[in-house]
Amino acid sequence: MKNFINRFLRNFGYEFKSVKLLNTVTSKSYQSKGLIVEFVGVSGIGKTTFLNRISNQNLREGWFLTKDLYRFHPAESLDSLKSINREQETVYRFMLNSVFDELIAKQEFPFSIKVDIFHYLINVVKYDVFMRNSSFPKGFMLDEGIVHNFAKEIVALYSLAKNGNFSLDETVGLLFKNRALVYLSASEDYIIGNLKKRENDQTAVINNWYPLLGNDRLTEFVREKILIAGQIFRIAGELNVPTLHLDVENENFDALSIKMHKFLSSVVPK
Fold it and tell me: Quick one: CATH architecture of 31-267?
């Protein structure tokens, strides 16, 4: 199957290979030009819904949103992966290798879904590199960024770095550079309820988890993702990344919107 995936990826200008993490890395990281404000939280918690609602308010001006990226910069038109250096490539390869191995092991997922998910994650990486080399008046605001989509892999990477396997600054620190996180939380029942409502949504092909997993596995999936999202929030705090916690279940939209406006005012460079 890996040979098939390799051929598939070459069609999109990317070659997949195994990589051994470096024990030491040189300092060649680049400074991001545009601030990236990324929403993180379990799939089904309402990241896209909340982003769409607040983007209709006056904070829309000056921000490039996820839907803007997809509209004006289709993934197939990007060649951003050619610009990454060795250290960045090591980080991205680690995450993609980990995701690939986990996808292959999921017997409940049809092969076509595995390919679609992996293709989607390749595009997430391409967009992340693109944004780091782009400049917009305020920056980017995303509900589907690299931290959300590779949260489990970032937690593993952080653990390895903390144990001294390689530089923290040039791995997880690089991913969080010039990035702010908005962490959305809610109860297990709230998230599962939203995911079940998504079952008949024809646009949610990749992240329509309920039909893929069934009731019992969906509960396990949500519990694991809640734990991982919390770990990402903690790691961001330890790295002094600007963060905002929003309880989307117990606070109304007006209260959440006020907090969001204040947070953006505090992180946008004057």
Answer: 3-Layer(aba) Sandwich (3.40)
